[in-house]
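The instructor's notes for this session suggest beginning with a concrete chain rather than abstract definitions. Hand out the sequence below and ask the class to guess, before any prediction is shown, which regions might be ordered.
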Amino acid sequence: MNWKNRIRKWLNVDILEPWNWADAPEVANLREDRVLDETIVLNGNNEAHLLLAPGVHLHLAGTLRGNVLGQSENTIKITGEFHGDLKCEKLILIKGAVVKGQITYYTLVIQDGVFLDGNVNTVIPEDFVNRLDPGRKR
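After discussion, reveal the predicted structure:
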């Protein structure tokens, strides 16, 4: 394993994109808050708060102003603009994406040419902390 892959593995940064949004329905110009129970592609100008059910993924191809909360095993792929609070397990930022606000993620995949503005936080898993400091008291 070369040094780049070792660093990516140690930092928990995934360089692969395992999710396919090809069969996901497209939704545009969303104006009401909703709970998503299926994977979607979000286009157009959207102003809503979204709650993602476990295992549901979101591809933001348009603009979203609002909050997105992923409950578990959620992947959010952003190729457009996001303004607000975002919490998810895996965040994929593609070249040209604009993300402003409070962002919390477990795994990040990012390309060059992404604009981030605001507070960006990584959720550090408990097992990773225990590997760094096995004698740590809980």
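Then share the key points. The first strand starts at residue 26 and ends at 28. The chain has a mean pLDDT of 81.
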